[in-house]
C-alpha cells in the first residue's frame, strides 16, 4: 500500500483531487507530497494510513512474540475491556479539569457549564483560554493514569454482574 501510494502520488495522475507541487524548500515539497485529502478520504489518504497501520501492527505482533509489549498489553486490555465506561469517565474528568483550571486562573468557569449559544464546549473555547502541547500531553497522561485504577475496578465489578456487560 505504501509503495502504491508513492507511485500514484509521484505520478500526480490519480488518487487525490489536489496534486502535489514542487516548492522552493525541500521540506515544503515533502509536505506538499504528503498533504492528501482526508475528508472525504482520498485513495492516497487510505493507502498511506492503512499501509502505515499494517506495518505498525506487524511490528507490534513481532515484538509481542519476543515478549516486549507484555506490560503495555496488560494495561491496554484494562481499557479495552471497559471502553464505554472509560469514554464516559475520561470526558467527565477532562471537563472537571477544564472547570478547575478556569477557576484557578480566575477565568469565567461558568462558561464551561453554560448552554449554547452563551458558552459551552459546542461554541469552541473562551477567549484567552488554552494551553500548549506539553501541558495538553501532561493532562492527557494524568487522565489516563487516574482512569486506569477506576477502569480496573469497574472491570472486576463487570465480570461479577452480567447485567453490567452492556455498559
What does this structure look like?
The chain is an all-alpha fold. It folds into 2 domains: 2-65, no CATH class; 70-166, no CATH class. The chain contains 6 helices and no strands. The chain is extended, with a radius of gyration of 22 Å. It starts with a helix and ends in a 7-residue tail after the last helix.
What's the helix and strand layout?
Layout lengths: L1 H10 L14 H9 L8 H23 L4 H12 L1 H22 L28 H28 L7
Helix pairs in contact: 1-3, 4-6, 5-6
Descriptors:
about 170 residues, about 60% helix, mainly alpha, 6 helices
Mass-distribution shape: extended
Helix vs. strand class: mainly alpha
Question: So how many helices?
Answer: 6
Low-pLDDT windows of residues: none
Mean pLDDT, to the nearest integer, reads: 87
Q: What composes the largest sheet?
A: none
State the end-to-end distance: 37 Å
Number of domains: 2
Strand content: under 5%
Amino acid at each position: 500500500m505504501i509503495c502504491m501510494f508513492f507511485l500514484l502520488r509521484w505520478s500526480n495522475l490519480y488518487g487525490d483531487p489536489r496534486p502535489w507541487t514542487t516548492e522552493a524548500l525541500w521540506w515544503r515539497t515533502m509536505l506538499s507530497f504528503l498533504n492528501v485529502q482526508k475528508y472525504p478520504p482520498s485513495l492516497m489518504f487510505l493507502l498511506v494510513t492503512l499501509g502505515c497501520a499494517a506495518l505498525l501492527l506487524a511490528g507490534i505482533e513481532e515484538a509481542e512474540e519476543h515478549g516486549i509489549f507484555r506490560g503495555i498489553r496488560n494495561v491496554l486490555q484494562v481499557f479495552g475491556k471497559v471502553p464505554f465506561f472509560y469514554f464516559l469517565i475520561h470526558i467527565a474528568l477532562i471537563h472537571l479539569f477544564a472547570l478547575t483550571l478556569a477557576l484557578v486562573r480566575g477565568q469565567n468557569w461558568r462558561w464551561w457549564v453554560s448552554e449554547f449559544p452563551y458558552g459551552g464546549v459546542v461554541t469552541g473555547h473562551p477567549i484567552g483560554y488554552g494551553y500548549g502541547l506539553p501541558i495538553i500531553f501532561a493532562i492527557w497522561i494524568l487522565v489516563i493514569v487516574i482512569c486506569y485504577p477506576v477502569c480496573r475496578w469497574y472491570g472486576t465489578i463487570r465480570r461479577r454482574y452480567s447485567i453490567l456487560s452492556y455498559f
